[in-house]
Amino acid sequence: MAKLLTKDNFVRRLRAEGARRYQDRHPFTILLNKGKLSEKQLQAWILNWFYFQKSLPLKDGAIISNCPIAVVRRLWVSRILDHDGYGELEGGIEGWLRFAQASGLDRQIVLTSKPISGVGLAVDSLLNFARKSSWIEGVATSLTQLFLPAVVDRRINALARYYNHIVKPEGLRYFLSLNAQARKDSDTALTLVIKYADSNELREKALRAVLFSEDVLWSILDAIYSAFVVRDSPLHEP
Fold first, then answer.
1. Alpha carbon of 130 to those of 14, 115, 125: distances in Å?
2. CA 71 – CA 228 distance, rounded (Å)
3. Is residue 82 part of a domain?
4. How many Cα atoms within 13 Å fall on the side-chain side of residue 117?
5. 75 in a structural domain
């Protein structure tokens, strides 16, 4: 029997393979970070990425529905509350809406607009993966958050430096709160995967799930780049 892939080796492979294809290397993200996007291109990203944002609690709900372990369900349900908000606490979805408004987009348009087809297909594939795969693989899709803090730091700097004529300062609040949340969530996901993926087969499936999730993020940006940088499509379809 092969020796079980250790936590350190798992994380080392995850960082090595995942970092090569994470969204910060995408041409659209590079343009964003260099301040090269037009107002319409920036708004197109915000508008279409909202479909991904509002799909996250649905993905987490699917993971919970597939999980037979009560302690895991109790732990994971907090992610849904983090997205949707509860009590007086504003969730991530509302935070993104406020970011959109601070960038000149109408709240109702963001809430009611459909994403461009490539974005919809990519996000829906992630939802279907969470619904049809094991809960461990579903949890593993969240390990992309291991790479998020550095990306968020660059994004905050770019928005504040290059897009301050578009994005009001209050629009950055969402990103300022995201770093700590991403670290907590990725630590939780990693702990669960290491504990319950107790065979090399399961750990390999978990790694493939992470890479699939990164491919989804890349595909979202592919669609936005093609529509609004290459083809200069209208922000709102008539």
1. 19, 20, 9
2. 44
3. yes
4. 1
5. yes
Q: What does the DSSP 8-state code read for residue 23?
A: G
Q: How far is CA 74 from CA 49, 56, 69, 131, 175, in A?
A: 28, 17, 9, 18, 26
- The dihedrals phi and psi of 199, each to the nearest 5 degrees, come to -145, 160
Report how far residue 114's alpha carbon sits from residue 236's, in angstroms, rounded to the nearest whole number.
Answer: 9
Residue 170 lies in a domain: yes
Q: Any idea which residue has 């919809």 for tokens?
A: 120
Residues 6+ apart with CB under 8 A from 210: 14, 18, 140, 141, 143, 144
- How far out from the chain centre does Cα 201 lie? 26
Is 81 among the domain residues? yes
What's the CATH code of the domain at 89?
A: 1.20.910.10
Q: What tens-digit pLDDT sequence spans the chain (238 residues)?
A: 567 778 788 888 878 877 677 788 899 999 999 999 999 999 999 999 999 999 999 999 999 999 999 999 999 999 999 999 887 778 899 999 999 999 999 999 999 999 999 999 999 999 999 999 999 999 999 998 888 877 888 999 999 999 999 999 998 888 888 877 888 888 899 999 999 988 889 989 999 999 999 999 999 999 999 999 999 898 876 5
Are 127 and 55 contacting, i.e. CB atoms less than 8 angstroms apart? yes
Radius of gyration, CA atoms only, the chain: 18
Residues 6 or more apart whose Cβ sits within 8 Å of residue 87:
none
How far apart CA 211 and CA 214 sit, in angstroms, is 5
